[in-house]
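Sample entry (437 residues):
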Amino acid sequence: MTKAKGSDQLDARLTDAHRLVHPRHRRRGRVGVWRHLGPGLITGAADDDPSGIGTYSQLGAQFGVGMLWTVPISFPLAAAVEELAARLGLAGKEGLAALIKRSFPRPALYGLSVLVAAANTFNVGADLGAMAASARLVVPIPFLVLLVCITGVLLFLEIVVTYHNYARLLRLLTLSLLAYIGVLAVVKVDWLAVASNLVVPHLSLQKEYIAGLVAILGTTISPYLMFWQCSEEVEETADRKAGIRITRTRILGMRVDVIAGMAAAVAIMFAIMVACAYTLGAHGAREIGTADQAAQALEPLAGNLAGLLFALGVIGTGSLAVPVLAGSTAYALSETFGWREGLAMRFREASGFYGVIIASMFAGLAMNLAGIEPIRALFYAALLNGLAAPPVIGSMLVLGNRAGAVGRHRSGWLSNLLVGFACLLMTALPLIYLALR
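Predicted structure, serialized as tokens:
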């Protein structure tokens, strides 16, 4: 009788834990390490959001291949940061804001929450604006009408439909980003220069160059992805009874998942920068302010269909990333203030959680009325993410070395080295930028 009662209590706790996170991400037919693939791949797909596309396009056009050395540096740093976020979710069984709440003073928690919410909201606005501007390349409808329609559709999907159900379909649209790889096959690329710039850093103290470094790291190692990755792993743990016991296979599967997701994201980053360097940059287009200008990078491959391909890529990645951005803000604030949370819950059961999502989306929509060029706003969003990332990474670094947060799954020397370097680099670059005249 006692054993049955204990089993019922465990099942009840698992059910409650499952209701506090977003819906299940099911796996069929996968065994061992491979059954754990999923959250990292979604994070990697969201990493190449419109902000990433706009930033990589701008820097490729402006600096040519001179910033390609950031590609091999960004990959291990992004993978290490996301691995730490995933491990915190796995071992801590709570979202990142909840873990910070348990280990840091309240003022630090509130400061981080406000900083991340501001960066996420601006990013939402930039992504929505870019999606509407890109859609206009294909559909001749006024920008404001498209903006309102896109915002309404995404809000409906996030509140009414399970994210993972439609994310599978939307990921097909992101395949249009492979067109940038196709461009490399049809334009004249100096591969010797590409290889040289990948290996040898070309540093400059020009203010625009340092701003580019802040932006490129900000869009590759974005704070919202850390919150999302952590919450995704909490979901995985609550979704499977076996996940309550974190095995070596589970950790290995998570690491393979994260590395695969970040490798795919960085590969697209490389392709966009090189393609724009040898198309837009080679023809003198150094500043990209409109969707039409950005789409010209695909003309050597797609011709008159360049606008369509570009629009599919931006709309697909934006539809994946905007719910992640708004959702990560909602999770962070809900964990901070102790509200009920979860996309699996109904609106009336988690009104504060859904209220944050709605407010974030409407604030992003309103931001586009200020007259900021949509594609240029993507670059500003990456800059803001670069400023918000260091304190979040620093908090994660501390948590990863606390047994109270991760138990026996504390960070090893390699994780501490890479995450510590990412935090140091992303702290130093904004300071250097501010010091320059």
